[in-house]
Amino acid sequence: MTGNKKVLVAEDSSVIINLTKNVLMFENYDIVAVKNGKQVLDRLAVEDFDMILMDINMPVMDGIECTKAVRALEDKQKANIPIVAITGNYKNYTMDDFKKAGLNDYIQKPLDYDLLLATVKKHLS
């Protein structure tokens, strides 16, 4: 048994973090939450994750910039981690924009938690 899958949630809204944690922990995922892209990179430097849920609009370093930084990491396993965008401003971006940044998928806000869970399972199966 390899243990639970670890999901890094990058989101500046405490409400969304708590709801996401509750949904995913109910399915036995281990969740670590951070508030900005710089914190994502700091955590990735010292910890392994199976997936990142990445808010696009965050302070300090946004989700697009952070995703590009993750994709540029020397550690190929970490550089290729599945990253799913979470955004309320999806109309400002096309799926092509997300793909160019290195994002694997996206979920729009307000979050549909059934879709969130299905998307996480899709990328972690």
Automatic annotation (TrEMBL):
Q: Which UniProt keywords apply?
A: Kinase, Phosphoprotein, Transferase, Two-component regulatory system
GO-annotated molecular function: kinase activity
Q: Name one GO biological process term.
A: phosphorelay signal transduction system
Q: Which residues carry this modification: 4-aspartylphosphate?
A: 55
Q: Name one Pfam family in it.
A: Response_reg
Domain Response regulatory spans what residues? 6-124
Q: Which domain of life is it from?
A: Bacteria
Question: Which N-terminal stretch is annotated as signal sequence?
Answer: none
Name the UniProt record assigns to this protein? Histidine kinase
